[in-house]
Amino acid sequence: xxxxxxxxxxxxxxxxxxxxxxxxxxxxxxxxxxxxxxxxxxxxxxxxxxxxxxxxxxxxxxxxxxxxxxxxxxxxxxxxxxxxxxxxxxxxxxxxxxxxxxxxxxxxxxxxxxxxxxxxxxxxxxxxxxxxxxxxxxxxxxxxxxxxxxxxxxxxxxxxxxxxx
Length: 165
Prior knowledge:
This protein is α+β, with helices and mostly antiparallel strands.
């Protein structure tokens, strides 16, 4: 996770370094009306003790596979949109075929709200590999809000890339 995601509005991010290389982050996004915690580590072997402690707090944990299943099993646009955003939040560091498929399918949805959530999910995942898709959606989508959101997200990706140089 990065501390400053330029596509987010009114976000709160608090992070704790639990041990070298293991970070616990609490994030709240008022625009998406969601709050969540993320544990990041370069190695899963470092996480055991922390996962056990957090499980004792009775928080819900989701694996990437469970997040994707939530997207594919959602029956309403609202449920699918929330599931997409959660999948973007919990996405792995690098794109995978299952995630790519879910994000591309979101852009094919007949529901503008699902397409908007798919764009937000791509932003949360922070995968610059989706910049071309965002550019295409920003020009070709039938809905002006979807086009605008895709353009804003693509611009945020470009801005982040310039900052990384």
